[in-house]
Design a protein that fits this description.
Layout lengths: L1 H15 L2 H22 L4 H34 L1 H7 L4 H31 L5 H29 L2 H17 L7 H4 L4 H5 L2 H9 L5 H23 L1
Helix pairs in contact: 1-5, 2-3, 2-5, 3-5, 3-6, 3-7, 3-10, 5-6, 6-7, 6-10, 6-11, 10-11
Protein name: ABC-2 type transport system permease protein
Membrane topology: Multi-pass membrane protein
Pfam families: ABC2_membrane
């Protein structure tokens, strides 16, 4: 446990030194919230909550997809993966520390966003709404970290991984009800949005969980991850 705690501390410390990562975790999400809420939500508290939960899940998706997968690719490219396999403690502890550090960063980013929403729009979520958001965040971190690892296993090169992850990320967020109810505005996208994994996460965060869709995605990603793991062992 001490090893995981120390590993998490150093992973967070390393993350905080990366200006680009800090920008997309702590500056970009509040900026998007302020702009969108002032344009479309000054007299619409319901949209402000809708937007707030969407941007929280945006942060979860971004940090989970880009952080975990990219780091693993870098380990393979730099040869660090061989080093980690011969160090005194289990490599899995290092991966757990990496995962916990991203969870901590995401929760700190969310607290920042909640504080800004309260200051700018006097928006405060109820306890039940906060629980829904927390459950959505946990589910999102799990699913998109797993998806990031799958992409990392598939690419093996940082440039390929980044390109594929970018394509996946922007497809997921723009074909979803993240910023506005796209499925209501354009019925043509309903089927696509319904199978988007972000949709299942957003529904949890907004208090209307679709557990069947979530379970299907968890099983699907586990099967693909297991396939890559078995293939790697052969």
């Amino acid at each position: 446990m001490k090893t995981i705690f120390i590993g998490t501390y150093y992973q967070v410390k390393t993350f905080l030194r990366i200006k680009k990562a800090l920008f997309f975790s702590f500056i970009f999400p509040p900026f998007i919230y302020i702009i969108f809420s002032q344009i479309w939500g000054p007299s619409n508290p319901e949209y402000q909550k809708f937007l707030l939960t969407g941007i929280i899940i945006l942060t979860v998706t971004s940090d989970s997809l880009f952080s975990v997968g990219n780091v693993i690719v870098e380990y393979y490219q730099s040869g660090l993966i061989k080093f980690f396999k011969v160090i005194p403690y289990n490599f899995n502890y290092h991966l757990i520390s990496l995962f916990f550090s991203r969870v901590l960063i995401i929760f700190l980013s969310t607290l920042t966003l909640l504080l800004i929403a309260h200051i700018i729009n006097h928006l405060t979520l109820t306890l039940s709404e906060l629980i829904d958001v927390a459950l959505g965040m946990i589910a999102g971190i799990f699913i998109f970290s797993l998806l990031g690892i799958i992409v990392a296993h598939y690419t093996k090169e940082n440039t390929q991984n980044l390109s594929l992850t970018n394509l996946l990320f922007f497809s997921l967020i723009f074909l979803s009800d993240m910023f506005y109810p796209l499925s209501e505005l354009n019925p043509a996208f309903v089927k696509i949005i319904s199978i988007n994994p972000i949709t299942a996460i957003l529904k949890i965060s907004r208090g209307t969980p679709d557990l069947i869709s979530l379970l299907i995605w968890v099983i699907f990603l586990f099967v693909i991850h297991s396939f890559f793991f078995i293939k790697k062992k052969q």
